[in-house]
Amino acid sequence: MPFIQTPIQNLLVFEPKVFEDSRGYFFESFNLKTFRAEGIEINFVQDNQSLSLYGVIRGLHYQLQPHPQVKLIRVLVGKVLDVAVDIRKGSPTFGKSFSIELSAENKKQLFIPAGFAHGFSVLSEHAEVLYKCDSFYNKESEAGILHNDPSLGIDWKIPAGKAIISEKDSKLPLFADCENNFQFTK
């Protein structure tokens, strides 16, 4: 199967089968049948795409219930460190993060279920990131966690003084103070 379970339950790495020849390559970046075969019932309704320069850190973002977003993240150009933090109260991995390099070259994707904060840092000169969402953007449900919260200990792989953070993201609360209405269910 093209899915790899991470150390955090329900957080999956998706590695599509890539067909290469002298002309280039082809792969299915998403196929509903493949996801359903893994037991993932999903109806993606929105695609988001961003272009960011080296050193940009976006996140950690999520939407509160009743408008959480399940996401499938991939990189079209460049390389990022993609990070998900388990914010499901009662989860054995509550407050733990998982990070993975996603790139145009490796074609890996991260499937992030509801109950996770998400962010990424750009490790290449620039990167284009595309992610599918199963719920529409809802401003009133917007929430987040400060990217450099010491309790999370995330190494964004960006040297000190080189990080580029939006004003909005620099004002996000610490993990201990974030708004969170997610509960872990098996």
CATH level 4 superfamily: Jelly Rolls
Largest sheet: 6 strands, antiparallel
Query: What is the annotated CATH architecture?
Result: Sandwich
Order of helices and strands: EEEEHEEEEEEEEEH
Distance between the ends: 22 Å
Helix content bin: under 10%
Radius of gyration: 16 Å
Q: Roughly what fraction of the amino acids lie in strands? A: 35-45%
Principal-axes shape call: globular
Low-confidence stretches: none
Biggest sheet strand order reads 1-2-10-7-12-5
Calculate the mean pLDDT score and round it.
97
Domains (count): 1
Q: Which CATH first-tier class would you pick?
A: Mainly Beta
The helix tally amounts to: 2
CATH fold name, please? Jelly Rolls
Number of E strands: 13
Q: Which structural category fits the helices and strands?
A: mainly beta
Provide an overview of this structure:
The chain has 186 residues and is mainly β. The chain has a single domain, classed as Jelly Rolls (Sandwich), CATH 2.60.120.10. 5% of the residues lie in helices and 38% in strands. The protein has helices spanning 32-37, 167-170, and strands at residues 3-5, 12-14, 19-21, 24-26, 46-53, 57-63, 71-77, 79-86, 97-103, 109-112, 116-122, 126-133, 142-144. A six-stranded antiparallel β-sheet has the order 1-2-10-7-12-5, with no helix packed on it. A five-stranded antiparallel β-sheet has the order 9-8-11-6-13, with no helix packed on it. It has a two-stranded antiparallel sheet with strand order 3-4. It is globular. The model has no long low-confidence stretch (mean pLDDT 97).
